[in-house]
Design brief:
Layout (H helix, E strand, L loop, with lengths): L10 E6 L3 H12 L4 E4 L7 H5 L4 E2 L4 H5 L6 H11 L7 H21 L4 E3 L18 E4 L2 E2 L21 H6 L6 H7 L1 H9 L2 E2 L1 H15 L3 E3 L2 E9 L2 E9 L2 E13 L8 H7 L4 E4 L8 H8 L4 E2 L4 E3 L2 E6 L2 E6 L8 E4 L14 H5 L15 E4 L3 H4 L1 H6 L7 E4 L2 H8 L3 H17 L11 H4 L17 E5 L2 E6 L2 E2 L6 E3 L5 E7 L19 H22 L1
Parallel strand pairs: 1-2, 1-11, 2-8, 11-24, 12-21
Antiparallel strand pairs: 3-5, 4-5, 6-7, 9-10, 10-11, 13-22, 14-21, 15-16, 17-18, 18-20, 19-20, 23-24
């Protein structure tokens, strides 16, 4: 009936959230013939996934195979195990996630308008057994928002420049030469704008939405999950706040919690990720709803101290300041200093956010924060985005005529900062960073023009300092799950009917990414895994 409520009948599978994990799961279940309800808390679809750069890490994918690039999942497993932090052992989950990746990607190219292309990026930990120089990183090609049909103008936008693809950002010098690069690409950009086409995460979500609609999913916006329905310890549905009322949505075979992270929940952040913050990149709707619902249903929360810490600069987004991921610390004439005015790392290493978040194991105090990028007068002309957008965050960037004056402005010992810069300038003269090995990974950085590695002395006044605290693109903690994505209680028993994926699960790849794309790629693989188990259960029931 035309006026029938979407909650009048039960669904096979209910998905809470509309990011890449949620929509991948919905697509997999719907293409298997299951009835699927997708509930999105806000009026816009895609969450942090839509705002992302759209890089996806999938070892053993069909695009690499078609390009003649050898890969296998055993090597990928060795690579994850070897590159993970000491003490991490998620072998069953890693194995399941890797096995799900290739069929997940094939499903997307078969059942959505999405098309992907490999990037030139290597696995960053090149010395770890199982690493590959190319073939595991990919990203979607541009796609018109109109492909999403009636949801065309309900796809969340990004802080990043939407018309550009991930590949173009890597292969051009957009961050250093935004105007000339834009003119260089202007014919294709005008074509995309005329068709409302976008790249990166916007393209990804647009294609997933189209696929889900074509497969028969019902998608509700401004439909917030508030509570999981339990019967005899089994999750049988979810309570949904929609159009001013509370509605019970029933699920025959499972509910997936994929509502994103909790970075905009001050209480949860104070408990799990306390300390100085830079900018938050995701939507302000990420308040830990999924984590709270899962815990209320009896799930054990874990990995709540893990997050994607990414260098970010301020950007106005929907009337407020958010973080736009830009590696503004990677210039030749810049260094990172800690609260004591000392340089403490190779600025070009992968997972710089992990270093920034490092704490004393005994006291829990941050080892380096507050941290700053220190550079000289040549920095801002080279990084126009930083120069243009710094005004959005007063005090984020400061300048001074001398290093001593700069040190006083940022609260570090003047003598220590002067000594640190003098030491760095001396290293520049030798061309070898004997302190931290900067430059040894130059080959790994070659495909990414967002950073200008190398050495240039910091000598020209005015000197600048830019805060470099932890900016978060996504938290990575939530309900602990098994290798099928099923939520677990503290005693290890399975909560039947409850699945968690994406930023709402205890992610087996935490803060230390295995490379660019190890947020989205694993998130989507986990969505696929959860749906696979729901499809299996539905098949057994029939």
């Amino acid at each position: 009936m035309a006026n029938a409520s979407p909650f009048d009948s039960a669904y096979d599978f209910i998905v809470l959230g509309s990011g890449c994990a949620a929509l991948t799961a919905a697509l997999r279940a719907a293409t298997a013939g299951l009835s699927v309800l997708v509930c999105e808390k806000t009026g816009l679809l895609g969450g942090t996934s839509a705002m992302s750069a759209g890089g996806i890490w999938v070892p053993g994918n069909h695009l690499a195979r078609e390009a003649g690039l050898e890969d296998n999942l055993d090597d990928a497993l060795r690579y994850i195990a070897g590159a993970s932090p000491e003490g991490w052992d998620e072998m069953p989950s890693w194995r399941a996630m890797l096995a799900a990746g290739p069929p997940m990607l094939e499903l997307l190219e078969q059942r959505t308008p999405l098309r992907f292309r490999l990037t030139g990026e290597p696995d960053p930990y090149a010395g770890v057994p199982g690493a590959r120089r190319k073939g595991r990183m990919l990203s979607p090609l541009p796609l018109s928002r109109l492909a999403a049909g009636r949801f065309a103008f309900s796809i969340r936008g990004s802080t990043l420049p939407e018309p550009y693809t991930y590949h173009e950002v890597l292969e051009t010098d957009l961050y250093h030469r935004p105007v000339s690069t834009t003119f260089q690409l202007l014919p294709r950009l005008l074509g995309r704008m005329s068709t409302l086409s976008a790249g990166k995460g916007v393209a990804l979500i647009t294609g997933l939405v189209r696929g889900c609609v074509d497969a028969g999913c019902r998608i509700l916006r401004e439909a917030r999950g508030t509570e999981l329905l339990l019967e005899g310890g089994r999750v049988t549905g979810a309570r949904i706040a929609w159009r001013g009322g509370a509605h019970d949505a029933r699920a025959r075979y499972g509910v997936l919690v994929a509502t994103g992270g909790f970075e905009w929940n001050p209480e949860m952040m104070a408990r799990y990720l306390p300390g100085p913050l830079g900018f938050l990149g995701g939507p302000r709707s990420l308040t830990g709803d999924g984590q709270a619902m899962a815990a209320q249903a009896g799930a054990e929360l874990a990995r709540m101290d893990q997050a994607t810490f990414t260098p970010a600069i301020p950007k106005r987004y929907r009337g407020a300041v958010h973080g736009m991921p830009v590696p503004y610390h990677g210039e030749a004439n810049s260094i990172l200093i800690d609260r004591d005015g000392r340089r403490f790392t190779d600025e070009l290493i992968p997972n710089i956010g992990e270093v920034i978040d490092r704490r004393d194991p005994g006291s829990g105090e941050f080892l380096h924060l507050p941290a700053h990028v220190v550079a000289d007068a040549r920095y801002l002309p080279r990084m126009p985005l930083v120069r243009w957008l710094a005004r959005l965050a007063p005090g984020w960037l400061v300048q001074a005529a001398t290093l001593e004056e700069l040190a006083l402005k940022i609260g570090v010992p003047p003598g220590a900062l002067a000594d640190t810069v003098a030491r760095y300038n001396a290293l520049c003269a030798t061309g070898v960073d004997s302190d931290f090995g900067r430059g040894r990974t130059k080959a790994q950085q070659a495909a990414d023009k967002r950073k200008r590695g190398g050495f240039e002395p910091i000598v020209q006044s005015p000197f600048i300092a830019i805060r470099f605290n932890r900016s978060i693109m996504s938290t990575k903690g939530g309900a602990r799950t098994d290798a099928r994505g099923r939520a677990l209680r503290p005693d290890g028993s399975v909560i039947e009917g409850l699945y968690c994926a994406g930023a709402s699960m205890a992610n087996p790849i935490g803060t230390r990414g295995m490379g660019a794309g190890t947020t989205l790629g694993p998130f989507m693989s986990w969505g696929y895994l959860c749906a696979e188990d729901v499809v299996r259960r539905a098949g057994q029931a029939t």
